[in-house]
Structure formats: structure tokens, C-alpha cells
Amino acid sequence: MNQALVALALDEGRWDGDRCVLDRKAIDSKLKELDRERAQLLRARDKGGVVVVHANGCDITTYRCEKKGKHFHA
Questions:
Q1: Is residue 27 predicted with pLDDT exceeding 90?
Q2: Contact assessment for residue 30 and residue 38, using Cβ atoms and an 8 Å cutoff
Q3: Which residue ranges make up each domain of the chain?
């Protein structure tokens, strides 16, 4: 096992006594979660990015990022 897989098991696995277990069911669940997140990220990228204005614990507004010249303006 390489160190990356060990770190993954420790991050995503469940503890059973002194063992940390990352089984196929947990891996499949995490992959589904990542697939959903990837789909959302692709949607955000298609919009050029997303800006959320947040103040005093409330979301005020949201809008797409727009590229103007060499800099991004939100």
C-alpha cells in the first residue's frame, strides 16, 4: 500500500477498535458524493464561476462571474 491509500483510509474509513476500515461500500458512497460534487462544479464552470454575496448571516444575491479583459470582475 502506498502512503496516499493509507491517508485515504484514515480520512474516509470508519474505526473498528484499533483498525480503520475503508470498505467497498464506503468507497462507492464517497464516489457517488464526488460525482455529484463534480457535476455541480462543471455547472458552475459553465457559468464562468459563481459569486455569492453574503452579509450578516444571509445570502444577499448570487450571480455569474464575468471575464472582462485580463481580470475577473464579480
A1: yes
A2: no
A3: 3-73
